[in-house]
Amino acid sequence: MGLNVYNKKEEISFNFPKILFVGLLVFSLIFTIVLSFKKEVTIVIDNEEKKIVTFMSKTNSILKSSGIKLNNKDKMSVGLNSSLQNGDLITIKRAVDVSFKADGEEKVIFTAEGTVREFFNAEGIEIGELDKVTPSLDTKVYEDMTIQVKRVVKVKQAQNLPVEYITIEQPNDRMVKGEQKLVSQGRIGEKEVVKELTLEDGEIVDQVILKETIMKESVSEVVDVGTLTKMEVPNGETVYYSSIIQVRATAYTADVNSQGVPDDPYLGATAVGTRAKRNPNGMSTIAVDPRVIPLGTKVYVEGYGLAIAEDVGGAIKGNKIDVYVHKYSDTLNWGVRHVNVYILEDIQR
């Protein structure tokens, strides 16, 4: 019995180094395995970098253990169930509030998209070819920004419109200035107008006429307009004149001159066969150039009175007249004057 005990002790003593070695080997193996699970992961949230040492592999576990919570609109570079390796990078872009205005509505949308264009794509917002987007599609999205869409459409419109008639005024020298008389009634026409309308959010902002077709011609209205001016002459009579002529006025008579020779060799006979006359309160005779003032024309001569063009004279050419007076001395008193001659018109009142 004593021999056997000795042998066992000797055997244990002999095997102890082996056992220790195996234990250390196992521990080393376990430690190596544990170390193989250790990893360093870099997490960047909105450009802020954070390094995490972890033994976990799944993304969601790493985020949870690091106290990082995600919004359902946040964007991450890897999936939540992805397995990460040492040195891997996770980028997270936090969603921000954006005010979106379109179609008469305004609402707040969370988004983590980079540009306005990407925002529209992510939200399924359709933009027409003519729609106006503010700001531009390539603008970067930022918190509390406002994105507005104005819906722009072009439509064609056809409508019948009136064609207004024009009024033609024709002078009437038998009527006083300010008086008008309808000669013929105007008539409104009709046309079809085709327009292209540009609407922004339902409001017309521009219109272009594409075509006009006259359906019914308009008819012009014709109106007589008076040209005469009313005037009261010194004898109290009211007369009407159509024009004024400035003339050089001299005087003549049938009386004899200082040498006893008649001033008028025809002794008062006029070119129209009447006798020359001087009537301060009625019509007197004047000699004219018929090319300027036709014979038979009634006039008012400043400083002389009412007269009728009944005579001519060899020296009376152009804007010149000769007024008839009773005596030779009256011709001297008249002399030579520059006066206005008012061309009178007879009108029924």
UniProtKB/TrEMBL annotation:
GO CC term, one of those recorded: outer membrane
Matching Pfam families: 3D, DUF348, G5
Cited SUPFAM superfamilies: Barwin-like endoglucanases (SSF50685)
Keywords per UniProt: Membrane, Signal, Transmembrane, Transmembrane helix
Domain G5: 149-229
Annotated GO biological process: peptidoglycan turnover
Classification via SMART domains: G5 (SM01208)
Annotated TM spans: 20-37
InterPro entries reported in the protein's UniProt record: 3D_dom, DUF348, G5_dom, Resuscitation_pf_RpfB, RlpA-like_sf
One GO molecular-function entry: hydrolase activity, hydrolyzing O-glycosyl compounds
Name of the protein described by the UniProt record: DUF348 domain-containing protein
